[in-house]
């Protein structure tokens, strides 16, 4: 006698989302965990000098406390999205939260720098399924009419975590030692594990993983990220690594071209709406990263602001995004997302372009950044909504992994563009040119979204 999987029964019973109040426990578990993951990528930076001194480690090694986490995260996003669909997104998400919480405790207990770096690698492995599968689990937990709204709040959480991460880290260090940066994750992680009981998701399709494809994926992204970081200091080595990354991606795509279970979701990328949304997402994150690299140099060297004032000025974008995200989410549930993304991309392009022109006056630049931050929200939220709803529910995990990968790929492209500018051009001219590059990437995103607006309707389940 066989029994139906209770998880599968839940999915069938709550086909259009969970009822209240169970829905709110699910949202809490997903958004709070995502907040922890984003904060952990932002707060560790401020503790590097303290960690260097207390663990008696060279600075070149201490930097890997940040790098190891980010690198493992980008290497594992797509494989974890695949595994989430194979074993069930709820199951893998819960494993991810468990690993992340355990790794946080190990970070707090680290007696040596090597221990700490190894624990950060484990944290990255735990964070990857969280970032990959949060959106998929939101789709299963919420009615379709609420998806845009909650993605808006999701954007607000990420924006605030990114903006306030260094300040939160500094506040913790002002009352405690650096291990508390990681120890605070432990009780929150345990609460999230309790709340995650409310989540629902399919039980998994049981597909076997292509270990070679996953290895090629990890290698390609590692070469790309590390190579992009070395271009400015060692051009030959950096560009060689980027070229090897492109070659590895080509081998991976060739291997998976006819696969029914690709690690890179080629089946989804063949859908015009999903493909164009992925391209638009990559473009706006390239614009974001190039702006965030250019602006500190403009504020500090162009306007002569002290470090504290630079930090405050940099919050103009993310704080405006935090306000615009929920508004964009409500519109995205009611208005054609392609048109919203087009308008948002235009707003970003105008704001960043004017910031490049007015780079001699602080107040106009801040106003332009607020326009760009609002425009970013009106691209990111509707665009993510389309990526999620343009695919079958069974492929929501792959859609979530693609969103995270597009973000990291775009940020790598933006960082690489700035590295090239700093290597080839006078330093004083780079901030303006970086903002101009960001405006161009934003305009490209608007054009891509405009092209999506012309597509015929593609029904999904």
Description:
The protein has helices spanning 6-13, 22-54, 59-62, 64-87, 89-108, 113-141, 147-175, 180-183, 185-195, 211-230, 235-256, 266-269, 272-302, 307-314, 316-332, 337-357, 362-389, 396-424, 430-453. With 461 residues, it is mainly α. The radius of gyration is 21 Å and the shape is globular. The model is unreliable at 1-6 (pLDDT under 50). Residues 26-457 form the Major facilitator superfamily (MFS) profile domain.
In short:
It is built from 19 helices and no strands. The protein is mostly helical. It folds into three domains: 1-206, MFS general substrate transporter like domains (Growth Hormone, Chain: A); 210-260; 265-461, MFS general substrate transporter like domains (Growth Hormone, Chain: A, Up-down Bundle).
- Which structural class matches the secondary elements? mainly alpha
Number of extended strands: 0
Number of helices: 19
- What portion of the residues fall into strands of 2 or more residues? under 5%
Average pLDDT number? 85
Question: Could you say which overall geometry the principal axes of the C-alpha atoms support?
Answer: globular
Determine the CATH topology of the largest domain: Growth Hormone, Chain: A
Largest sheet: none
- What low-confidence regions span 5 or more consecutive residues with pLDDT below 50? 1-6
- How much helix, percentage-wise, in residues? over 70%
Distance between termini?
A: 31 Å
**Count of separate structural domains:** 3
CATH top level label of the largest domain? Mainly Alpha
Q: How do the helices and strands follow one another from N- to C-terminus? A: HHHHHHHHHHHHHHHHHHH
- What is the CA-based Rg, rounded? 21 Å
Classified in CATH, the superfamily of the largest domain is MFS general substrate transporter like domains
**Architecture of the largest domain in CATH?**
Up-down Bundle
InterPro entries: MFS, MFS_dom, MFS_trans_sf
Transmembrane segments: 24-43, 63-83, 92-111, 117-138, 150-172, 178-199, 211-229, 235-253, 274-299, 305-328, 340-358, 364-383
Domain Major facilitator superfamily (MFS) profile: 26-457
Membrane topology: Multi-pass membrane protein
């Amino acid at each position: 006698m066989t029994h139906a999987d209770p998880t599968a029964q839940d999915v069938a019973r709550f086909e259009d989302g969970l009822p209240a109040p169970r829905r709110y426990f699910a949202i809490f578990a997903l958004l709070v965990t995502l907040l922890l993951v984003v904060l952990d990528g932002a707060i560790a930076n401020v503790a590097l000098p303290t960690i260097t001194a207390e663990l008696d480690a060279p600075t070149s090694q201490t930097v890997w406390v940040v790098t190891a986490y980010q690198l493992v995260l980008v290497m594992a996003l797509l494989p974890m999205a695949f595994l989430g669909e194979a074993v069930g997104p709820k199951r893998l998400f819960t494993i991810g939260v468990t690993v992340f919480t355990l790794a946080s405790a190990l970070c707090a207990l680290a007696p040596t720098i090597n221990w700490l770096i190894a624990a950060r690698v484990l944290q990255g492995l735990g964070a990857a399924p969280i970032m990959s599968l949060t959106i998929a689990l939101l789709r299963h937990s919420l009615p379709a009419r609420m998806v845009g709204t909650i993605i808006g709040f999701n954007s607000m959480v990420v924006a605030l975590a990114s903006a306030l991460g260094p300040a939160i880290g500094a506040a913790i260090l002002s009352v405690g030692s650096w291990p508390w940066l990681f120890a605070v994750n432990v009780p929150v992680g345990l609460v999230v594990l309790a709340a995650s009981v409310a989540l629902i998701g399919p039980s998994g399709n049981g597909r076997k993983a292509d270990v070679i494809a996953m290895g090629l994926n990890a290698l390609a992204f590692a070469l790309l990220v590390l190579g992009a970081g070395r271009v400015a200091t060692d051009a030959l080595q950096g560009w060689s690594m980027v070229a090897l990354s492109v070659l590895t991606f080509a081998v991976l795509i060739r291997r998976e071209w006819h696969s029914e279970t690709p690690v890179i979701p080629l089946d989804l990328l063949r859908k015009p709406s999903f493909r164009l949304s992925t391209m638009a997402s990559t473009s706006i994150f390239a614009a974001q990263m190039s702006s965030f690299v250019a602006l500190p140099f403009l504020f500090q060297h162009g306007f002569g602001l002290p470090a504290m004032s630079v930090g405050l000025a940099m919050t103009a974008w993310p704080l405006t995004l935090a306000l615009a995200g929920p508004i964009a989410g409500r519109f995205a549930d009611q208005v054609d997302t392609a048109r919203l993304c087009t308008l948002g991309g235009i707003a970003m392009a105008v704001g960043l372009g004017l910031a490049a022109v007015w780079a001699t006056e602080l107040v106009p630049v801040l106003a332009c950044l607020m326009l760009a931050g609002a425009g970013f929200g009106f691209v990111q939220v509707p665009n993510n909504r389309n990526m999620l709803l343009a695919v079958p529910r069974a492929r929501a995990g792959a859609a979530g992994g693609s969103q995270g990968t597009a973000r990291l790929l775009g940020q790598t492209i933006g960082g690489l563009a700035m590295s090239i500018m700093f290597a080839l051009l006078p330093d004083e001219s780079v901030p303006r040119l970086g903002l101009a590059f960001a405006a161009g990437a934003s305009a490209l995103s608007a054009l891509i979204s405009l092209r999506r607006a012309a597509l015929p309707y593609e029904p999904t389940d």
